[in-house]
Amino acid sequence: MTVLGIDPGLASTGYGVVARRGARLVALDGGVIATEPGLALELRLAQVHAAIGALLDEHQPGAVALEELYFGQNARTAFAVGQARGVVLLAAGQRGVPCSGYTPQQVKGAVCGNGGAEKAQVARMVQSLLALAELPRPDHASDALAVAICHANRAPLAGALARAGEGGGVHAAAPAPALDASFAWAATGVRT
């Protein structure tokens, strides 16, 4: 299974591609899709859509995992993030790739065991779980890899629960697989 994780944003959309290789998770790609603030909104969204489409075509993921929209105090930022999230969903939908959303707390809990973990702790855990030589940078790429890890680790459980529901019985959950990777992280992964 290959998962494209997305940390949506208008100025910077983080992406991370994680694949399961047996019992291991491997990072295949990661970086940021950056748009220029001076461009018209529709052109910026078109850039995000095209870049996500290229990533989907290149990596052929079985799923896209997105961080859910967080409404903080700045509604303007929330709307921009929602628009970027929408073009990601559109690109995936055009290719028939299923999408799942996770709250920041779910992602942090899945990666760090603590839904209130700080960004630095998430980055260190992503580095550890994927055996990256360096901390993933920038933060949006690290967050996107964390979203992909969250989905990749939940997918086997979701499949087992679905199968258990089909069979009508209750089955014990399988132990969590060991995570490892041999991905050499590029210090700057920025796509424009």
Any descriptors?
alpha/beta, 6-stranded mixed sheet, 192 residues, disordered C terminus, globular, Nucleotidyltransferase, domain 5
Question: Could you walk me through the main structural features you see in this protein, from its secondary elements to its overall organization?
Answer:
The chain is α/β, with parallel strands linked by helices. It has a single domain, classed as Ribonuclease H-like superfamily/Ribonuclease H (Nucleotidyltransferase, domain 5), CATH 3.30.420.10. Helices cover 46% and strands 20% of the residues. The chain has five helices and six strands; from the N terminus they run E-E-E-H-E-H-E-H-H-H-E. A six-stranded mixed β-sheet has the order 5-4-1-2-3-6. The two termini are 27 Å apart.
Main sheet overview: 6 strands, mixed
Strand content: 15-25%
Give the assembly state of these chains. Answer: single chain
Count of alpha and pi helical runs: 5
Helix content: 40-55%
CATH class: Alpha Beta
Total domain modules: 1
Strand order of the largest sheet: 5-4-1-2-3-6
Mean pLDDT comes to: 85
Number of E-state strands: 6
List the helices and strands and how they pair.
Elements: E1 2-7, E2 12-21, E3 24-34, H1 41-59, E4 63-67, H2 75-94, E5 99-102, H3 104-112, H4 119-129, H5 139-167, E6 190-191
Parallel strand pairs: 1-4, 3-6, 4-5
Antiparallel strand pairs: 1-2, 2-3
Helix pairs in contact: 1-2, 3-5, 4-5
